[in-house]
Amino acid sequence: MHDFQYKRDELCCEAVPISAIADRVGTPFYLYSYNTLLSHFRVFDSAFSSMQHLVCFSVKANSNIAVLKTFANLGGGVDIVSGGELFRALLAGVEPKKIVYSGVGKRPDEIEFALMTGILMFNIESIQELELIDFIAGTLGKRAGISFRINPDIDPKTHPYISTGLKKNKFGIDIKKSLDEYKSARRLENIDIVGVDCHIGSQITDLEPFVATLQRIRELILELQENGISIRYLDLGGGLGITYDDETPPHPNIYAEAVAEEVSDLNCVVILEPGRVIVGNAGILVTKVLYTKKSEEKNFVIVDAGMNDLIRPTLYGSYQGIQPVKLTERNEFVADLVGPICESGDFLAKDREMPQFERGDLVAVMSAGAYGFTMSSNYNSRPRVSEVMVAGDRFHIIREREEYYDLVEAEKIPDFLVSK
Ligand code: LLP
């Protein structure tokens, strides 16, 4: 369920007509429903109420500090993959002991930042990384809580770019070697082994890969326990899919039941790192039709948002729903919804049945709350768009639209290029 519904032919976000926001902030803009964010977080969190757990929202899905603050206020933690994400999380008031740090390429300065912050744990992706964390912790006089990210070699049956738990992927430590790695980690002076971690991929719409992973991880935890290594945290990563088109992913309650079945006797705190399932359908991208044209083969609707604003359709061939902001009696046609970027890959929808849009119409690109703004760029020197949050009958700008000056603020012309 989400809060983007038509009221008297007008698409509204909660109680606010979207056209009223467009009048005030211009287009394009990302729009999030606060109450949808709240309810998605609560539904997910309460699904796990039968077990000790911590929901660590995956910041990469949507890192606006107002969004992070929304979850921090509900007691949520975060999953981060960079110093920048840690910085954002702290600004949003996330408690350090609710922060887990994943990612294959943690830099020394980022490790130091996380150790000084006192985060809950590092999810280790390689032995060299573990050794570096041990060393830096030693120089700082700190201890580092760690879990190994286990690569269970399970096919999540999703897009190859967002599969992470297969042997051929760069992520994690081979499950077959993991017992030995845990044993050697035990000898490191500044390391506390606290957990086991895994994350097999994203937009997973089938329960089976999750269950297969859980079974393998369960065996590993039992084996670790037999070897005197007790595991406090079991981090299951993110990955639960959402409905973009006609997918039927398991409800968080069903997912949580499957988790409970495998882990309830292990005496671990279960950590979840959901991203998309919380924010994906809580946000849309609102754009305006600039022109329409017809070639011999196709109809084109040219809008003012492009692949730099929302890269998912062209990068993954992903489906995003297209809806008019004002319902009309117009007929439908099959068209490509394209942006202003100078690339043929610049499309938001291809060969899609949609109303016969006209110049000036507002278009809602649905399900854009996850990996939308966070993956946007300034390609073609396009200022990044604003982000707006609606709560009830009010809207709040939570990120200003960039201006031309923002594009060049960090750049410099060296003296030798300036003629005297
Ligand atoms: N934990 C880790 C370690 C991750 O790498 C990810 C996502 C998550 C949690 C959150 O996964 P989620 O619950 O959102 O599926 N840009 C792609 C998705 C990339 C996902 C990367 N990792 C997309 O737009 O589909």
Give the helix proportion (percent range).
25-40%
Please state the second-level CATH architecture of the largest domain: Alpha-Beta Barrel
Terminal CA distance:
63 Å
Bound molecules: ligand LLP
| CATH topology tier name of the largest domain | TIM Barrel
| CATH homologous superfamily annotation of the largest domain | Alanine racemase
Extract low-pLDDT stretches.
none
- From the spread of the alpha carbons, the general shape counts as globular
Give the strand content. Answer: 25-35%
| Average pLDDT number | 96
Strand elements, count = 21
> Which CATH C-level class of the largest domain is it?
Alpha Beta
Radius of gyration: 23 Å
Report the structural category. alpha/beta
Please indicate the count of domains.
2
The number of helical elements comes to 12
Sheet having the most strands: 9 strands, mixed
Features:
eight-stranded parallel beta barrel, 26% strand, 420 residues, single chain, TIM Barrel, nine-stranded mixed sheet, binds ligand LLP, alpha/beta, 2 domains, 28% helix, Lyase, Ornithine Decarboxylase, Chain A, domain 1
Descriptive notes:
With 420 residues, the protein is an alpha/beta fold. The protein folds into 2 domains: 157 residues, Lyase, Ornithine Decarboxylase, Chain A, domain 1; 243 residues, TIM Barrel (Alpha-Beta Barrel), CATH 3.20.20. It has 12 helices and 21 strands. The strands form 3 sheets. Strands 4, 14, 15, 16, 17, 18, 19, 20 and 21 form a 9-stranded mixed beta sheet that branches. An 8-stranded parallel beta barrel has the order 5-6-7-8-9-11-12-13, surrounded by 4 helices. A 3-stranded antiparallel beta sheet has the order 1-2-3. Helix 2 runs parallel beside helix 9 and helix 8 runs parallel beside helix 9. The chain is globular, with a radius of gyration of 23 Å. Ligand LLP binds next to helix 10 and helix 11.
